[in-house]
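So, is this right?
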Amino acid sequence: MSSSAATSPRATPGPGRPKDLAKRAAILDAAARMFTQHGFEGASMDQIAAEAGVSKLTVYSHFGDKEALFGEAVRVVCASLMPDDLFVPDTGAPLRLQLTGIARAFFAMITSDEALATHRMMMSPGGDERVRQMFWQAGPERTQRAFAAFLDARAAQGELELPDVPRAARQFFALLKGDLHTRMACGLCDRPEEAAVEAHLEATVDMFLRAYARNVPAAR
């Protein structure tokens, strides 16, 4: 949004704003479904508008173009599954507990049917590099930045020793994915039982803490 739009009287909340916000939410929900089902190239703005129950003009007035709509849909879905408050450091809570909560949310997100379908779409040959870049910035990059800020804050409390915070953040998520995410994305296995998932999360957090923790009690 431009600064002029932000200061314009027309941007002031009024009777029409809740309806506009509802339309925006409906468009994003429809876009997420259509992009997941048909891929970026296969999903059309006409389809998304029809699915959302709005005109195509309304879709364009909210998001400008298909690329912007895709990026925002990815961002909103990721934020709903891994909200910002998940990364707020709680110095009153054990570090292990917070790391496990983040790990659980991340693993649930990347192994959802929608996320796996999107991953396959991103990896398909001949895909648009711009779309991949938008996906990266709206999804994985946002998550890594938020987690890196969390790690930095816990390190400032003396709980972690991190020579390279962004690298440590990337390592944590790579450990969580492991080979399981790749096999699921390739359709070679189903999501494991809850007990197996929890064991994987605990093992990942243990390994991360063994590498970077300062005087953190071991798991029971």
